[in-house]
Structures are given as structure tokens and as C-alpha cells.
Amino acid sequence: MAIWKLISVLALEAVSFFIIPFGLEYFGYIQQLTAVAPWILGVTLAGMLIKALCGYISSDDIKWDRQGYEFCGLTFSASVTGLALQLLSDKDLFPGIPTTGLWEYLKAFGADIKPQRIAFLVLLLFVSLIMLLITAIISKEINKPNTHWKAGLSLINFGLGNFLFAFYIYLLIVKG
Question: pLDDT tens digit string along 63-112?
């Protein structure tokens, strides 16, 4: 049974982190991907598949709730790194991120793009921290014997983590 969980996780990660971005681009929901986007997506997907496979080998099972929690942890760590790099840089490290639509609200932090990017990265850091805490709490509750609706809670955790990490990957591929 656990092998089917592994296969389903691998398939969902392939769809989430490789196929969906190209579909969104094709239908015009996101801007055209850069020439290096397939490489970024491929390397990210390979890393996630290796992570899932190693997790399966180490525990002989796939826990959906842990997958979501780990995606939130990865995004939190990556957000810290992105913020630190942007703080130390004199230029915008994410030039491909749009500046229109909802992104326009960041202009409240100044006309220059660098403070806007820092504000956005701080926001992403806090959102990923909150989601990390939420998924940690849900994972803890799932491990309690009298918790009801464990499958649903696992799906919520996986969905939250998967969405957050997929958003961060989008930021990487539009980076420029």
C-alpha cells in the first residue's frame, strides 16, 4: 500500500512543480517563462522527488501531512535566504516579479523597487512561518489516537504546503 502513496506523491509533485507552471503560461495566467525556467523546474522537481523517495526509504511510508509540513519548512527557509540576499544586495534580485495588480500595494513602502521587494519577502517570510506553525499543529494532532478526520487533515496539510512551495517556485522562475 505504501508504494502507491509514494507513486501518488511523486505524480502530484511532478504535476504541481513542473506541468502546472507550463499550463498556466500556456493559458496566459502567468507571464511567459524565462528560458531557464525548465531547468529551474526540473532541478526543483528532481530535488523534491529525491526528498520524497528518501523519506519513503527511511520510514517505509509516506505521510501526506508531513509532506505539507516539510514544504512549508522549505519555503520558510528559502524565504529567509531570499530576504537576507535582498537585504545585502544593491539591486533588485527578483526583477521578473510583476509590479502591477496586487503587487502595486507594495508601492506603499517607497517608490524604489528594493524596499518593495524587501517588504514582499518579509510578508512571504511571515506567511510561510504561519503556515509552518499551522501544518506543525495539524501534524501533531494527526498523531494523536483520538483525532477524527485524519485523512482530511492530512490532505489540508499537503495542500497548504504544496501551494505555498509552488508559489515560491513561481517566484524563482519569474525572477529574471
Answer: 888 888 999 999 999 999 999 999 999 888 888 776 766 677 877 888 88
Contact 33, 6 (CB under 8 A): no
Q: What is the pTM of this model?
A: 0.81
Q: Grid coordinates 518579509 are at which residue?
A: 122
Helices (H) and strands (E) in the chain, counts: 6, 0
CA-closest candidate to residue 56, choices 1, 136, 137, 134: 1
For residues 118 and 86, the answer to whether their CB atoms sit within 8 Å is yes
